[in-house]
């Protein structure tokens, strides 16, 4: 167990370092930074000054090391556009994105798990086929389009929810629904197939032979085993949702990290873009690690060998 | 002797295929009753049908299905689940996969007693430890905290047996409990079952295709062929005076030390258990039977061949 986790932790650190390096290289590859910072009206002298000021004239390796040391300490420099520390910007915006992602995941689980279980129990029935059809539609629907539909119906026509903006819980409902839609189909399919496999297993027959209640057979003995892959995928899906928040936050004008990324990209504000990519990637890595940990908790064969 | 379990004219179909075609058998209180036959003859399906554990798509009918005087054929799933694990228990052929990999042995054992008897956790743990000791597991306390994958096949089957005994059942159905185990372990498990049966007065319905096992522990034997019980008799009577050609064939397949000379061919029954089409009449064994004659495609009489000895055959075979 400890060895398993140490191995996963080592891999996670290596991936994080790779992401750090790539995000550094990407900004350096996309043209001369000094020119893009200086803007179209700058003179050659201005560009040279900026190059000096930001240390862009130093060897690449030195710039990289310098940047790496500060990035590891949480110092991503200063935004060109917002005139604020990048770390501050992200610290302000990240809670919004994380809340949105968690709302999306919670909604997805609340819908996907029961439907997946019901579909598995009634395998081959109309209920099963109906659920799978909904999964197919959900998978095929672009999230920005669903977002617009929800805005028109729930926001404009019914007036139940605010159309866009950042604020209290009601602002999270529609974007949360849209985000959850991207995760529901895969979670539901996985729950269904896992449950079908579990329910046809010998230990379920044993559970029935022991006269256990239906709920205990389905949930305690069936779902517990079907849940192992679902947990991994749910963690990965949360990572996708956080990445996908760039689209959703832009559609719903929520001022989270995704919106920040979109703004910074359009303003060529490279320290911010770099930091956002980095933070999202690190969260993703952390989530994968968390999934491994949860798997080990859920699967005793992993834990005790 | 009062019958603990009485099955009359049991029929099980999957889709249009008949797996059991009118099987009848009775298990007396405290008796070990062996159900033997080739693979595919309907032994396992019969046992699952009695427990109400048929896989999806299986349909069960019987003119009588009585357990301890109670007609259980018409019980619904909820009523059946109150009996299962409590008064009638079952163990299976595959000890490796029959325990849930996600829970400890203790958790899986205690839930039976807690479900049926409303026992407290502590009571259930005590009972589980006591039974693990009873089935010959040393260090029960340690085993209770272990997961199935940490145990060998023989230990898992002992755990399954102990788990089946949690509520002191009157009937234990064992579906080929030793088939997946090493020969040495097989003998241990069988001795264990025989001992438990003696000490607890348990009625056992043991499904097996191993006639050696039958000879050692059965009080009574029923021979199944193609979904029917073709012969049923007390063990000594069946081995000493088999009447059905199929039973004779089965017995001829087993080498007996001292009787079979080295180099002599072992007996065998040509062919395999046939698929029985719907509307089939007559004896299902007639295509493989050397004594088959015209009457075998008509209705087959159930004959009394001696005290407690029934045979389903048109022939009156000499001893």
List descriptors.
heterodimer, A: 305 residues, mainly alpha, 2 domains, 13 helices, 79% helix, flat, B: 319 residues, alpha/beta, Rossmann fold, 8-stranded mixed sheet, 5-stranded antiparallel sheet, 13 strands
Question: In words, what does this structure look like?
Answer:
The complex is a heterodimer of chains A (305) and B (319). Chain A has 305 residues and is mostly helical. Chain A folds into two domains: 71 residues, no CATH class; 215 residues, MetI-like fold, CATH 1.10.3720.10. The radius of gyration of chain A is 24 Å and the shape is flat. By secondary structure, chain B is of the alpha/beta class. Chain B contains ten helices and 13 strands. Chain B is globular. Chain B starts with a strand and ends in a 7-residue tail after the last strand. The longest helix of chain B is centred in the middle third of the chain and has 18 residues. The model of chain B has no long low-confidence stretch (mean pLDDT 88). At the A-B interface, helix 9 and helix 10 of A face helix 2, helix 3 and helix 6 of B. Chain A: It is a multi-pass membrane protein. Chain A: InterPro entries: BPD_transp_1_N, MetI-like, MetI-like_sf. Chain A: This is ABC transporter permease.
């Amino acid at each position: 167990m400890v060895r398993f986790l140490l191995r996963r932790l080592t891999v996670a650190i290596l991936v994080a370092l790779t992401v750090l390096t790539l995000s550094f290289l990407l900004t350096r590859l996309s043209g001369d930074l000094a020119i893009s910072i200086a803007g179209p009206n700058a003179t050659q002298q201005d560009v040279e000054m900026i190059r000096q000021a930001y240390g862009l004239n130093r060897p690449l390796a030195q710039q990289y090391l310098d940047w790496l040391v500060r990035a590891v300490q949480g110092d991503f420099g200063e935004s060109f556009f917002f005139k604020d520390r990048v770390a501050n910007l992200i610290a302000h915006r990240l809670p919004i994105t994380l809340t949105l992602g968690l709302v999306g995941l919670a909604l997805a689980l609340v819908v996907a798990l029961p439907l997946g279980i019901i579909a598995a129990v009634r395998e081959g029935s109309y209920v099963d086929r109906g659920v799978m059809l909904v999964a197919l539609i959900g998978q095929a629907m672009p999230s920005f389009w669903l977002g617009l539909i929800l805005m028109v119906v729930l926001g404009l026509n019914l007036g139940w929810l605010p159309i866009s903006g950042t604020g209290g819980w009601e602002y999270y409902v529609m974007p949360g629904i849209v985000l959850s839609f991207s995760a529901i189909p895969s979670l539901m399919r996985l729950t269904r197939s896992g449950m079908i496999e579990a329910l046809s297993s010998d230990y379920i027959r044993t559970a029935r032979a022991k006269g256990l209640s239906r709920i205990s057979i389905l949930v305690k003995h069936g779902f517990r085993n079907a849940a192992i892959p679902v947990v991994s995928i749910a963690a990965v899906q949360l990572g996708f949702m956080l990445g996908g928040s760039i689209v959703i936050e832009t559609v719903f004008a929520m001022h989270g990290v995704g919106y920040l990324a979109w703004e910074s990209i359009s303003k060529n504000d490279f320290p911010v873009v770099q930091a956002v990519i980095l933070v999202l990637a690190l969260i993703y890595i952390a989530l994968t690690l968390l999934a491994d940990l949860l798997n080990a908790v859920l699967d005793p064969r992993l834990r005790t060998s | 002797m009062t019958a603990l379990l009485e099955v009359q004219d049991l029929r099980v179909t999957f889709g249009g295929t008949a797996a059991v075609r009118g099987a009848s058998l009775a298990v007396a209180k405290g008796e070990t009753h062996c159900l033997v036959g080739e693979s595919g003859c309907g032994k396992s399906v019969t046992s699952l049908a009695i427990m109400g554990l048929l896989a999806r798509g299986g349909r069960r009918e019987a003119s009588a299905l009585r357990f301890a005087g109670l007609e259980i054929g018409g019980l619904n799933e909820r009523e059946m689940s109150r009996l299962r694990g409590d008064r009638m228990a079952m163990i299976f052929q595959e000890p490796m996969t029959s325990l849930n990999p996600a829970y400890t042995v203790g958790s899986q054992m205690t839930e039976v007693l807690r479900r049926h008897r409303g026992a407290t956790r502590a009571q259930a743990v005590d009972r589980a430890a006591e039974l693990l000791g009873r089935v010959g597991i040393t260090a029960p306390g340690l085993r209770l905290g272990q997961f199935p994958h940490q145990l060998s096949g023989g230990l898992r089957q002992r755990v399954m047996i102990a788990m089946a005994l949690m509520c002191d059942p009157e009937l234990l159905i064992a579906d080929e409990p030793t088939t997946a185990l090493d020969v040495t372990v097989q003998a241990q498990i069988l001795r264990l079952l025989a001992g438990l049966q003696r000490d607890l007065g348990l009625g056992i319905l043991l499904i097996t295709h191993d006639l050696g096992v039958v000879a050692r522990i059965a009080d009574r034997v029923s021979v199944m062929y193609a979904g029917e019980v073709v012969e049923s008799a007390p063990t000594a009577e069946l081995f000493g005076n088999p009447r059905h050609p199929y039973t004779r064939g089965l017995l001829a397949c087993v080498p007996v030390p001292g009787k079979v000379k080295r180099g002599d061919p072992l007996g065998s029954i040509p062919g395999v258990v046939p698929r029985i089409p719907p509307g089939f009449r007559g004896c299902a064994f007639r295509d493989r039977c050397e004594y088959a004659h015209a009457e075998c495609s008509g209705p087959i009489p159930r004959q009394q061949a001696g005290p407690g000895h029934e045979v389903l055959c048109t022939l009156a075979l000499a001893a």
